[in-house]
Amino acid sequence: MRRPVALVLLLSLWEGASRSGWVHPTVLPPPTTVARVLGELVAGGEIWPHLQVTVTEALGGLGLGIALGAVLGLIAALLRPVAEVLEPAMALLNAVPRVILAPLFVIWLGIGVASKVALSFLLVMVMVFFAVYTGIREVDPRLVERVRTLGGGPTHLVREVYVPSVTAWFLSTLKVAVGFAFTGAVVGEFVAASRGVGYILSFAQSTYNAPLVLALILLVVAVILALFTLFERLERVWLRWKPEYRPTRRVNAVRR
Q1: 174 near 66, Cβ under 8 Å?
Q2: CA gyration radius for the chain?
Q3: 7: buried, middle or exposed (CB in 10 Å: 19+, 13-18, 0-12)?
Q4: Euclidean distance between CA atoms 255 and 251, whole angstroms
Q5: For residue 111, which of 79, 180, 192, 209 is within the disulfide window of CB 3.0 to 4.6 Å?
Q6: Burial, 217: exposed, middle or buried (Cβ in 10 Å; 0-12, 13-18, 19+)?
Q7: Using CA atoms, how far apart are residues 64 and 75, in angstroms rounded to an integer?
Q8: Pseudo-torsion of CA 26, 30, 32, 35, nearest 10°?
C-alpha cells in the first residue's frame, strides 16, 4: 500500500512542479503529457513495428548469450586448462563497458539487426558465463567425491550435482540478463539504425522531444518488467523444491 501511495505522491509533485513552472516543461514534461504521448504511440500503431524489431534483437541476443555463456561456463568449470584461458578473457570483457563496442559492431555487421544482436549477445554471454562457472565451482567437493565413490561418471555429476546446484544462480542471472539484452539492442539502435525503439529515441533526442523520450523509456521498461515477471514465475516453478520458493500458505500449514 505504501508503494502506490508514494508513487501517486511523487507523480503529483512532478505534475505540480512542471505545471507551476518550477521545472521547465521542455526539460521535464508533466506525467499527463508523457501519458498522452505514450497513449498516442500505442493507439496510433506506429510504434509496434519498431518495438517488434527491438524485442527481436534483444531476445536474439538473450538466447545466443544464454546458450554460449552456459556452455562456456560449464566447460571452463570442468576443465581447468580451459578456465585458465577463458576466465581472464571474460573478466576483462566484464570490466570493460561493453556498450562502447557498439560502433565497432556497426562497422563489422552494418546497421541492421545483426549488430544489435551481437551487442546484446556479448552483454548477456559474460553474465551467464560467470553465473554457471561460479555456480559449479561453488559445489561442495565432498558431494562430488561421494558421487564418484558410488560409481557416478561425468554425466551423472552434470545431471545430478552440477545442474541442480547451478540452477538458482542461472535463473537469478536470467532476470538481470533481460535488462542487459534490451540495453544492447536499444544502445545499438541509438548508435546507428533505420528502425527500432533506439532509432526513435535518437530522433526524439535530436529534436529535444522530452515527452517522446520519456514515453519510449516507459514502453521499454514495461516490456522488460513483463519479461522479468515471466522469468520470476519460471524461477518459482523450477525451484519449487526449495523451501524458500514454496507458497507461504503451504509452509504455514506444514508448521501447524
Answers
A1: yes
A2: 23
A3: exposed
A4: 6
A5: 192
A6: middle
A7: 17
A8: 60
Say how far apart CA 83 and CA 132 lie, in whole Å. Answer: 12
Q: What is the DSSP string of the chain?
A: -HHHHHHHHHHHHHHHHHHTTSS-TTTS--HHHHHHHHHHHHHH-SHHHHHHHHHHHHHHHHHHHHHHHHHHHHHHHH-HHHHHHHHHHHHHHHHS-GGGGHHHHHHHH-SSHHHHHHHHHHHHHHHHHHHHHHHHHTS-HHHHHHHHHTT--HHHIIIIIIHHHHHHHHHHHHHHHHHHHHHHHHHHHHHS-SSSHHHHHHHHHHTT-HHHHHHHHHHHHHHHHHHHHHHHHHHHHHTTTSGGGS-HHHHHHHH-
Q: Report the first-to-last Cα separation within the chain, whole angstroms.
A: 29
Sequence-distant (6+) residues with CB within 8 A of 14 are 28, 30, 31
Write the single-letter amino acid at 195.
Answer: R
pLDDT in tens, 207-249: 999 999 999 999 999 998 998 888 888 878 877 766 666 665 5
pLDDT tens-digit readout, 2-31:
778 888 888 888 888 888 878 887 888 889
Whether the predicted model's global pTM rises above the 0.85 cut: no
Of 164, 2, 189, which is closest to residue 105 (Cα–Cα)? 189
Check if the beta carbon of residue 185 is closer than 8 Å to that of residue 198: yes
Max alpha carbon distance in the chain (Å)? 76
